[in-house]
Amino acid sequence: MNSWLQKQMNERPDHPAFYWQDEEWSFLEVGQEVQKWLTAFSSKIPQTEKRVALFSRNSKEMYFSILALWELGKEIVFLNTHLSAQELRYQLSDAEVMTVITATEYLTAITELHQVRCIEMSCSVVTERQKTADESSYQLETPASIMYTSGTTGNPKGVVQRFSNHLASALGTQENMKITATDCWLCPVPLFHISGLSIVIRQLVLGCSVRLYSKFDAERITTDLVEGRGTVISVVAVMLQELLEKYPESGYSETFKAMLLGGGPITPTALEKCEQFGIPVIQSYGMTETCSQVVALGFEDAVAKIGSSGKPLKGIEIKIVDDSEQFVPANKVGEILLKGKNIVQNYLNGDQWQAIKWTSDGWFKTGDMGYLDDDGYLYLVSRLSELIISGGENIYPTEIEHVLQEVPKVKEVAVVGEPDEKWGAVPVAYIVGESTVTAEEIYNFAQKYLAKFKLPKRIYFCHTLPRTASGKLAKHRLTTKEREAFLSK
Ligand code: ATP
Ligand code: MG
After folding, report:
1. Within its chain, how far is the Cα of 376 from the centroid?
2. Which terminus of the chain is more solvent-facing, meaning fewer CB atoms within 10 Å of its CB: N or C?
3. Which residue, 381, 407, 425, sits at the end of a domain?
4. Ligand 1 proximity of 31 Cβ (cutoff 6 Å)
């Protein structure tokens, strides 16, 4: 082994590395266990297969599989366990993998695809095999992981994350959150998503410990935070909400440092509660292509800069541009472009995306719209693809959604543009609500807060809204014939 793991084994062999349920593993013990998994995998996966897929939810086995596959020099395609069979087929064939390493509970599902060889996730050895030359040295520029984007705006794209991207990401977080080897990062978020995998990378690069959970259990995590079993935790908004509900009067342990919130903004009520309880929440902005957070808002700025995602991390440049890729001044909305070593250079099989997503001088075009204020804080406004241009006016669906969300009896909202002869496009709303809610009630409420041109021209009631495997609203599916499937009868 000649890797980040090896470095940690040499430098801090007895330091706690990994916690799973009631087990504690030092770096040395992790390394020894990885050796077993590595031997098992090397006897089962043909040497010629450089890339394999992993299909599991968080588990001890998944953790050791990741480390062992990297030691073996494999690129890992991370599959979201919530994907439908059709989505799985697409990602497996796009990534051209022949072998999927699967948690036992998913063996049948993967076998039924009849598309790949299935290896059950275990460290049992078939036959011993000699180590080969390409094993066990991380070449920084080789791909470590292929992770598909959430597919919020269309088909998911396979993001080629190199070790160098992951390294830059870990160092940016170290600087921003002052992470040291004494930290213990709680991981209730999935390892098949960058929010989870980036925690393992930080462990390998910075020497901190990881406490992994198979699923989010607010009660268990609250106990762990109260009893000082974690200094930092990554969460998404719904998890934060549940933790706030369970927050004990006596508070968390004094050793607790920060809650890193990703994936979406904090609600004003949640922020108020965090203030009241003194929970330091760090809000962050990032995407699969940036290998975790690239912009973050510290707790000290949360109230003064409410609604902002924060400032770029060290090593990240940010600029806001118009349609012709020209700079726009502070406080003006445009597309967010990013540059930095975190950011990947390409998609898998993504030639057609290269010129669309990367400028000739190396900026990544996020497809997100936002602005920088006078102090350089970033505010997200919309996705470029969701912008509605109606009679020359820019309409941001999220602004309308925030208002409609407040209507009593409304549960979920998605606003999209619909083609219109006169205006080019008009906003329309898809709503999941209680059975008694009427369009009239919604209009009466909305017109108090929205200019006339922003009022949805039509309201469609739905039994459910389309979502991606990561639970995000997939609004593009409401702009095709597919929308019929979601409408209430
Ligand atoms: P696809 O690229 O396939 O359409 P996706 O962009 O949803 O899917 P991800 O990489 O999982 O795939 O998500 C990144 C996106 O999530 C960002 O580009 C941004 O639109 C959104 N996002 C990330 N952080 C925040 C945040 N703090 N607030 C609001 N939106 C956020
Ligand atoms: Mg995206």
Report:
1. 24
2. C
3. 381
4. no
pLDDT score at 266 = 84
Ligand 1 proximity of 343 Cβ (cutoff 6 Å) = no
Span from the CA of 354 to the centroid of ligand 1 (angstroms): 19
Ligand 1 atom 2 nearest Cα = 149
Interval 237-256: pLDDT, tens:
999 999 999 999 999 999 99
- Return mean pLDDT, the chain: 94
Residue identified by tokens 């099989």 is 349
- Of 381, 410, 430, the position where a domain reaches its end is 381
- According to DSSP, residue 341 is labeled T
* Residue nearest to ligand 1 atom 30, measured at CA: 264
Ligand nearest to the CA of 288: 1
Cβ of 263 less than 6 Å from ligand 1: yes
Least confident of 28-37, 91-100, 263-272, 277-286: 263-272
Q: What is the pTM of this model?
A: 0.94
Alpha-carbon gap, residue 85 to 67, rounded angstroms: 27
If one compares 210 and 155, the residue with the highest pLDDT of the two is 210
- Counting ligands in written order, the one closest to the CA of 476 is 1
Closest CA to 441 of 406, 417, 483, 412: 406
- Ligand showing the shortest atom-to-Cα distance for residue 368: 1
- Ligand 1 pocket test, pick from 149, 271, 468 with the greatest ligand atom count within 8 Å of Cβ, gives 149
Measured distance CA(368)–CA(353) in Å, rounded: 16
Q: From the CA of 385, which ligand is nearest?
A: 1
Mean pLDDT along residues 127-150: 75
Contact (Cβ atoms closer than 8 angstroms) between residue 239 and residue 218: yes
Domain that holds residue 443: 387-486
Nearest CA to ligand 1 atom 5: 150
Residues whose CB is less than 8 angstroms from the CB of residue 25 and which lie 6 or more positions away in sequence, other chains included: 16, 17, 18, 19, 33
How many domains, the chain?
Answer: 2
CATH, residue 425: 3.30.300.30
Nearest alpha carbon, ligand 1 atom 31: 264
Same domain, residue pair 110 and 124: yes
> Does 258 lie in the same domain as 277?
yes
Residues contacting 386, CB < 8 A, separation 6+ = 153, 396, 397, 398, 416, 417, 475
310 Cβ inside 6 Å of ligand 1: no
Between the CA of residue 96 and those of 65, 75, 162, what are the distances in Å? Answer: 20, 12, 18
Is 308 near ligand 1, meaning CB less than 6 Å away?
Answer: no
263: left (phi over 0), alpha (psi -120 to 50) or beta: left
Same domain, 290 and 312: yes
